[in-house]
Amino acid sequence: AQSVTQLGSHVSVSEGALVLLRCNYSSSVPPYLFWYVQYPNQGLQLLLKYTSAATLVKGINGFEAEFKKSETSFHLTKPSAHMSDAAEYFCAVSDDAGGTSYGKLTFGQGTILTVHP
Amino acid sequence: DAGVTQSPTHLIKTRGQQVTLRCSPKSGHDTVSWYQQALGQGPQFIFQYYEEEERQRGNFPDRFSGHQFPNYSSELNVNALLLGDSALYLCASSSPYRAGNTIYFGEGSWLTVV
User: Fold this and answer.
1) Cβ distance of B103 and A46 shorter than 8 Å
2) How many angstroms separate the CA of residue A111 from the nearest CA in chain B?
3) Which of A15-29, A73-87, A100-114, B25-39 has the highest mean pLDDT?
4) How far apart are CA A21 and CA A33, in angstroms?
5) Any alpha helices (H) in A27-116, and if so which ranges?
6) Nearest 5°: CA angle at A55, between A27 and B27?
7) Per-residue pLDDT tens for A47-61?
8) What pLDDT, on the 0 to 100 scale, is given for residue B1?
């Protein structure tokens, strides 16, 4: 069974500071990993995804994440936070197997990012 | 290009009633999944439809059922509503032809059970 653990339900940073949101996963097969962002009262928007190509993945809005198999981690970072980054962020793992995307995502509990002026 | 669209956006139901939520997938997508997101939680997988059949199911009771139509749109039905069914219901669509395909989500349907 797959699982995702997001360390820290709330993270607070100052505008311009580094953003680091932590995600650890458990998977019995090589994982596909995703970060989604959810703004208040909205659906989920994909930030970036890891699909076994480059271990450092760049996404939208200046975010990036690094897949570390030895640490079973996929932490999300952004060098300089902006007020518009305030939202809830979800890490997810997919049980893609055999080259077919079954589209079943297992999500973490989410991390609420607050950005202070 | 329209993304994933869901209706209604908000609804209130009474315990014991039944509800139907609707989803149209992104153009070119033929796989539809449904997720339940309770307040303060991550989304939980309910089930997935492909070629008008339920292909995978999460740990949800039989009160949760669904359907996929020939045009790939889908419905989620919940019978005998409980207070605990109050949540944001998200529809997601994808295409199965490539591993790691991006899964797109709709804005969701907010269900309140009173």
Assistant:
1) yes
2) 10
3) A73-87
4) 14
5) none
6) 75
7) 998 887 788 999 999
8) 61
Q: How far is CA B32 from CA A46, A63, A77, B22, in A?
A: 17, 27, 30, 11
- The separation between CA B72 and the C-alpha centre of its own chain, rounded to angstroms, equals 13
Q: What is the mean pLDDT of chain A?
A: 89
Residue type, B38: A
For A58-65, what is the mean pLDDT? Answer: 95
Please provide the average confidence, as pLDDT, over all residues in chain B: 92
In this predicted structure, the answer to whether residue B56 has a pLDDT above a threshold of 50 is yes
Q: Which of these, A36, A23, A12, lies nearest to A71 by C-alpha position?
A: A23
CA B50 to chain centroid, in Å, comes to: 13
Give the distance, in angstroms, between the CA of residue A25 and the centroid of all CA atoms in the same chain: 11
Nearest to B45 among A49, A51, A104 (CB): A104
Helix (H) or strand (E) holding A32: strand A32-38
Cα A108 off chain centre by: 9
Report yes or no: A34 and A48 within 8 Å, Cβ to Cβ: yes
| pLDDT tens by residue, A18-40 | 999 999 998 877 788 899 999 98
**Integer Cα distance of A52 and A96 in angstroms:** 11
Interatomic CA distance for residues A73 and A52, integer angstroms:
14
> Which residues in chain B are closer than 8 Å to A43, comparing Cβ atoms?
4, 90, 105-108
Q: Which residue is closest to B91 within chain A, CA to CA?
A: A43
